[in-house]
Structures are given as structure tokens and as C-alpha cells.
Amino acid sequence: MIQDAPRSDTTRFDKPYSHRDVEERWYRHWLDRGYFAADGQSTNPKRFSIVIPPPNITGSLHLGHALNNTLQDILVRWKRMQEYNTLWLPGTDHAGIATQNVVERQLKSEGSHREALGREKFIQRIWRWREESGRTIITQLKRLGASCDWNRERFTLDEGLSVAVREVFVRLHQEGLIYRGERLINWCPRCETALSDIEVEHEEIKGTMYYIKYPLADDPDQFLTVATTRPETMLGDTAVAVHPEDPRYNKLIGKKVLLPLTSRTIPVVGDPILVDREFGTGAVKITPGHDFNDEKAGQRHRLGTISLFDHRGRMDPPALSEREAKVLPQLTEQLGYKPVQEARKLIVQWLEQKGCLIKVEDHRHTIGKCYRCKTVVEPYRSPQWFVKVNDPKNSLAAPAIDAVRDGRIRLIPESWKNNYFGWLENIQDWCISRQIWWGHQIPAWYCKRCDENVFKITGTITVIGINAKPIVQIDAPQKCERCGSTDLIQDPDVLDTWFSSALWPFSTLGWPKKTRELEIFYPTSALVTSFDILFFWVARMIMMGLHFMKDVPFRDVYIHALVRDAEGQKMSKSKGNVIDPLAIMEKYGTDALRFTLASMASPGRDIKLSEERIEGYRNFANKIWNAARFLLMNCPSNAKTYLGNPLPDPATLSLADRWILSRLQRVVASVNHQLDDYRFDGASRELYQFLWHEFCDWYLELIKPTLYGTDAAAAKRTRTVAIHVFETVLRLLHPFMPFITEELYQMITPVEGSITVAPFPMENTAWMNEAVEQECESFQRVVEGIREMRGVHGIPFSKKLSVVVRVANPVVEHYLENNRPMITALAGLSALEIGPHVRQPVNAFTGPIIFPGGHAGEVFIPLPDAIYRAKEITKKEKRLKELTAQLALEEKKLSNPDFAAKAPPEILENTKLRRQELRLEHETLSAALQRLREMSGGTA
RNA sequence: GGGCGGAUAGCUCAGCAGGCAGAGCAUCCCGCUUACACCGGGAAGGUCAGGCGUUCAAAUCGCCUUCCGCCUACCA
Question: A528, A560 in Cβ contact below 8 A?
């Protein structure tokens, strides 16, 4: 049910802004009114769409999410206000391994495990968890103000998305781009599943290099020494390689060596690819079952493969036995089911005992770890499903490269292109099967009768041999097409979560159905994401989008940085330096957090976030709030009466009014341009500067005399302008600070509705006025000159001054004369004399003022105190020195004939003008300094 | 080993289609001027990492060096 718009209680318009009740109140209102809903039937040609990078259901909001979604929300709110048909499609990702890990931990704490439950019950259990806890992050995104179309929220395991996944799988399989293969893959022994190459994190560690003696079979007194960091895998060696051109060893090629601790002999082979003569001993053991390079070498030399470990990374007794590795029986007994680390210790002990360990050295090298659980991964030979990414006849990668190369997709910042190309050009086939239960089960079935002999069942693990013939189709087949048996079994593996995320831009819009949404919103307009998933996600979406939609999934990819702590450290739970965005929002307000993130989102640079920074923008929110208070307090008949009407004729407006309207246009133009360029930082800086330092610091001060004055009509005109400008800025600021802007908008606008759907300001050059800005700047310089004098000498504002301003140029004189009341009020004057030939007061200090256009002026301030005088002399001498240096620089430029000849005329003019200004200031200042020295009678 | 990014005020960062070095925070001084002390006014603070070049002109463009990040690679 739609409720009335919440009312802001203006009687409780407290001095400091309090975000607490405001945020929740307005967010609920926006949802109630359905402002975030995209129009799925619209014919509006202006459309803007973004799909959210789906957060994990296991996640809770961290600053990376906060940044990512703030930026998306800024774009989306901006476009929505520009009357685009705007869709921001939200959702979550089932995060196969991570989610399964969470629930497995729960089971463990209950003394159970997934095998005890069985697949079906276990999955039910995860769904239950998902209903209870898996929506946390969605709630938190709402808290951040995300204006997603929540009615279209998707989940990668939704029925619709699952259909898309099966459709893609089957079609790629038909095209030969998905296949089963048995080879080494990265295996996490803790998660007990395969991982793709990029799910392995590489880390350099201080390890150990072991040098092991391999005696010749013919002549056990001679031996080869091999170096290895993984002695435990030596039991699976099937050869030793040397470089064919290495004179030390090449005569041994073709001979055999006795593999220590076993009863096997293995050949010595020559391999120029594997062996680097310079490294280690120049002799390398080949273990095709446990090393990717050795696997390739093994293929080159047609060597056998021995897999020593089981699926949990433990020594597998059958593999060690007489059948395969032929390990000494006593050692076999000791090694059975020992994990890698323990096995290594045993092997080293045994080698030492047998006199085969020559030496041990420290050695830095990299190891791979599971990106989910940080366990050391094992290369593990097993049958898996792969996507063939770079098939020369039907490549997925090549079109993805082209799309970026020819600009159909823009990466912002562009510097990511090289990374992107580099990765796609060297891409390997993508292992997509995972040996877990939570996810999209692979749509492949096997006939138990035909494939009976290829099933290998170890405990609860069913491994389907590589020779099995899968029936791949979208829905379960009724019977085996070969033998007619109905005894079928579905492939137990599930797909990599990223496989389903790769389809996200179109699966969420209804694909494979041909929906109106796809027509309207695909390709999406922009993708906002962090660089760390450029390969995981972005590249794969581009490949899948191009392959299945025949069009790019998005036009622009805005790649933002990581959020770090104030010291530049990556935030992590273990370091304890995590800033919780929810705590920040609670303390400083969501708007402050959002504005901070936006203002720090400079392309290509990580964000070092500190609380002081956020506090600063909380203060900004307060400043806005108090500007509103001021305006409302000075609008006796309520602000709303001023907004319905058009602006008064410029001719009737005060200088201040025309000035702020002119400045406003500059900001409007700039914010739009900056957002066009994804310069969130530039746009927020612009807004901050204008609102605080121009609107509040100058304009509101300038209009006070009018508001408090006796000319009611003038006051009314000024109120109209002030409210107009303020309301415009609120709309400009809304995408950045949605809550406070809505709260204030509702207070001042007579229109029923919401700022979320109010028009975004567009540049209106009619209000830009150079002359007005010059006039305003002229008297501002006088005010600043006097304020500086006050500041330097510590003269309080309460002490009124009598000031004389000498100005030769009649136009400038006119400007100042026009604004006499402003100068008097803002500089705190008791008297003000302006003119070309004004009398110079006795005992007055003076300061040069250079007006716009290079006109000279001077202010005289009576300060008959010797202490002031000494200070003044020091200060002026310093300034004079600066001026002399700068002037010399400009003179040098201008005296260079090449400069006049080659510099563009505009620069030449500017330089001349600058020289003129410097000369004038120098002249005035020198004279003033001279007078000061005379006044002080040589004592200073 | 390759690749990318960064080095500008005490701190965090803009500025880099060459043309006067900027902001915010922090510091110091003054100020209860009736929107705001989550404030106002002012000041101080810089070898633009270093070097060489291109140019009338370089923080900005090119090359080299140093130091910090990150990505990537099979050196056993």
C-alpha cells in the first residue's frame, strides 16, 4: 500500500543535521512509490541499464561493496533524473565453494558432515541457510541507498538462470567447445574440488631445495643429482631429464637410474624445454602426476603417470604399492594416508638414511593456494569438464579481444586494456567442473549399463572414468540412447560459479527466452567493477555475451580500485584493520560515506580511507543542512512559494543574485561533464567547492543585507533566486547524497513527488555572465584585502575600520561604488572612501589590489601601531621578493624573440597581462614599503 | 622474467589534450558577525622522487635511474 510521503518535521529543525531517522524513512518511501522500477515495456529510446556485480550470498557489506555500489547508484540516479528508462538490476551469486564451506562448518560443529546427510538433504540445508542468512547483503545494499529495481532481483540458482546455464552448457558442448578431459588440474585438498587456474593465488615462500642422489642402474657408484622442492613426489618420478646439449650429462641419455626408496628404474631423457642447464644441478626429475610442466614433458617422452595422492592430498596406499610406484614396503606402510607435509618429512628421513640426500638449501619459490580457503593446492590428475576458449575455428577469446580493441567496449581507465589483452591472448582452457554439491549440476548423464566398468567409487566419491559416454542435454533423458537402459546417473559435479555469472547480463533479463527486457536493456550501458575480477568475470561475460547474444554485454566498463586502510594496507579480518561501512554509516551517515567514496574515486589509484576524511564530509552534510535552515528561517511565507514561479527578470536582480546564477551554471555544466567521463571525484569536488565556498561563504553573506533590509520586493526576488539555486544544487547533489537532498527537497519544493525523479539540472548558458562575475570579483578582492590585513594583525571583526580605496579605472570604481554596502558589511567597515585621487590617510598601511583585467588599486587602512608596522614591513618585503622573482621570470619570457614568434597569441596576451599585473603590484608595494619605512623613522 | 600503476604541501590526493603549482584534512593566529564551533576570517607550508633530453615554454611529453604497490609467469 502506498503511504503518504513522510513529512519532515520542521519544528525539529535542529542545528546539527542528524541522519538517523532520515535515511530509513526516505528509503522506505522510495520503495513504496516504486521509483526504482524500470519500465519493461517502454518505448523510450533513452535507456540506461546496469547489472550489479552480484555479491556472494555469504558476504556482508564491506567497503569494496560500498564503493562499487555507491558509484553505480550515482550513475543510475543521475540517468534516472535525466529521464532515461533506467534499470539497475540487483542480485546475488550462489558462491558454490564459499557457501558450501559455510554450511559444512556448521555441520562440523554439530558433529556431522555432508556425506552423512546425503546430497539432497545437504542442498536443502544450504537453501535454508540462504533463506535465513543469505540475504544480509541485500539488506545492507538498501541501507547504502542503492536504487536497484528490487522486483527484478535475481539469484544465480534461480530457475530461469539455471535454464540459461543448461542451455549454454548444451550448446557449447554441441559446438565442441565444452569437453571432458583427464589431466592435471589445480585441486584444493581441503575443499576437495578442482579449481580453475585463476582461482589459485600465488605466494612466494621461504622453502627448501633438496638435492637427491639418483644412482645409475648399470653402475650404482655413479649417480645423477636432482634438485627438488617437493621430495615427496619423487616416488612418482617416471624419468630424469637432462639437457641434450649438456656435456656433463648427455652421454647418460637412454640409460636408466634407480629411483631411490623404490624398486623401480626410470630412464634418463634429453629435454631442452624442461631443463635449464644453469638452474639447480641441470638434472630434473620428471613427475607427470604432480607437476604441470612434468606432465607436458611426460607426454613428449611418452612416460607413464603415477598419482601418489588421493582427493584429500594424502598418500594413497594403492598407488604406492607394487602395482604402481613400487615403494619399499616398509615405507609404504609408514606413508599410507599421510598428508603432504608429513610425507615429506618421512621421505627426507629415509633418503638421509639411505645416503641419498646430498644437501638441503633454503630456497625462495612460489606456491599456489586456494583463493577461498588458502590451502596449498595440489596438481591432481582427474577427469574434468573444460571450456575450450581459444579454438582456432570457433574462438571465444578472439572476439572478446576484438570488441575491446575496436572500441565496442570501452575500459575506463584504458590502462587495463593491456592486462585484458595479455590474459586473453594467453588463455588456457577453463576447468568448469567442481566436485561439490552446491551449484548447477552438470547436465550430463551416463548409462550405468554401458559405462559400468568406468565408474570408480571411493567411499562416497563417485569418479566417472574419462571413457564414459555422457549424454548432454537440457533435461534428464528417459533412457540410454544406445542400449535403452533407464538406469542413468547424472554427472555428480557442479559448474564453476563464474560459469553462471558469465551469463549474468543476459540470463538476468530472461534469456534464452526472447524477452522485451532483453530488447530494451541489452547490451547494458555500463559495468562498474573492481579490477580483481576483470578475468574472473568481466572477460568471461564478454566472451559469453558475444557468443550467445552476438553483441557485447556492456558498452563501458568502469574499473575502480581497492579500498585500503589509512596506511595503505589491504583491509583484512586477520589484520584487524577492517573499517565496517555499516558502523561508518551509523556514525556519520550514509551520505557522508558515499560522498567520501565518490570524492576519492580517482581512476587508477587505490583509496586510502581514513575516518577523518569521512568526518569532513559529515560536516559538509551539516553545512548543507544549515544553509537550508538559514533559507527557511528567512522565508517567512515558506520556501515552497518561491519555487513555483519563474526567476525574475535579470535586470531586476541584485549583483549577488546574478553572480550566483552565473556560477551555478558553471557547476551544472561541469558536474554533467565529469559524470559523462566517470570522474566521480571531480564532480564531488566541484559540488563541495561551490556549495560551501561560493554559495555559503559568499552568496549567503551577500544577501543578508537584502533579506534583512526594508525593500520587501527586493528581498522577495532574492529569496526566489536563493531557493532556486539551492534547489538546483540539491538535484545536482542527489546522486551523491540521496538522503539529505531528499529530506531538504521535500521541505522546500511544492511539487508532490521525490527528488529521485526530479529532472537533473542541465546547463543554461543564458544565465552565464562574464561581466557580472568580474564585477563581483572586483569587490571581493577589496574585501579579501581588508580581511587579510585583519587576519595578519589579529584585528577582530568587532573593531570597525575606516578604509580608503584608491582605484584609477572608472569601470572598476563604478563596480566598487555599486557594492559599497557589501564591502562595508563583509569587511566590517565604519567608513569607506573610493576614488581615483583619494587622499591618503596618515599612518595608514596599504596593500596593492590587482583587479580583474589588470587594473591597479590600493587599500589604505589606518593602523597607527609600531608593532603592526614591523610585522607589515617584514611581510611586504617577503612579498616584494616574490614579486621581483616572478616579474623577472615573465620579463625573461617576453624578451625572448622565440617566445613572441612561436607562442600562441593567447598565451602571449596572458603573459603580457600578467607582467602588467606584477608590475603594478610591485610598484604599489614598493611605494607602500617606502612610506612604511619612513613612518617608522628607520627604527624598524 | 615480463606487464601495469604510483612517487606533487605534514597527511590524503587533484592537476598530466605542455602556458601563473591546487583542494581537503592537520598546524598556527584571530573571532560567540542573529544558518552552521560538525562554524567564520586569516596565515604558514612545495627542489612536483632524481637525472638527461624535446620545446619559446615541462609537474605535464620522451629516455634512463631509484624507491613503493599490484598483476602475471613452469625456473625444478
Answer: yes
Task: Look at residues A669, A670, A704, A687 and name the one whose alpha carbon lies nearest to residue A623.
Answer: A687
Distance A567 CA to B12 C1' (A): 10
Positions of chain B reached by protein Cβ under 7 A: 3-6, 11-15, 19-20, 23-26, 29-44, 55-57, 69-76
Cβ < 7 Å from strand B, A residues 690-729: 692-693, 696-697, 700-701, 704, 708
User: Using an 8 Å Cβ cutoff, are A804 and A844 in contact?
Assistant: yes
Which of the nucleotides lies closest to A793 (Cα–C1')? B30
From residue A568, how far is each of A129, A439, A577, A611 by CA, in Å? Answer: 35, 36, 11, 14
Instruction: Kindly state the cell numbers that stand for A62.
Output: 564491506
User: What pLDDT, in 10s, does the model give residues A797-851?
Assistant: 998 999 999 999 999 999 999 999 999 999 999 999 999 999 888 778 888 898 9
Across-strand partners of A180? A385
| A117 CB neighbours strand B below 7 A | no
Name which of A143, A140, A147 is nearest A52 in CA terms. Answer: A147
List domains and CATH numbers for chain A. 206-370 (3.90.740.10), 608-749 (1.10.730.10), 772-935 (no CATH)
Tell me: the pLDDT tens digits for A898-914? 998 999 999 999 899 88
Q: Confirm whether any atom of chain B, the nucleic acid strand, is less than 7 Å from CB of A602.
A: yes
Q: Which amino acid is at A632?
A: L
Best CA proximity match to A167, nearest among A474, A443, A439 = A474
Q: Is the CB of A871 under 7 A from strand B?
A: no
Please give the pLDDT value at position A653.
94
CA→C1' distance for A694 and B40 (Å): 14
DSSP for A486-549?
Answer: --EEE---EE-HHHHHTTHHHHTTTTTS--HHHHHH-SEEEEEEEGGGIIIIIIHHHHHIIIII
Q: Which nucleotide is nearest to A293 (CA to C1')?
A: B74
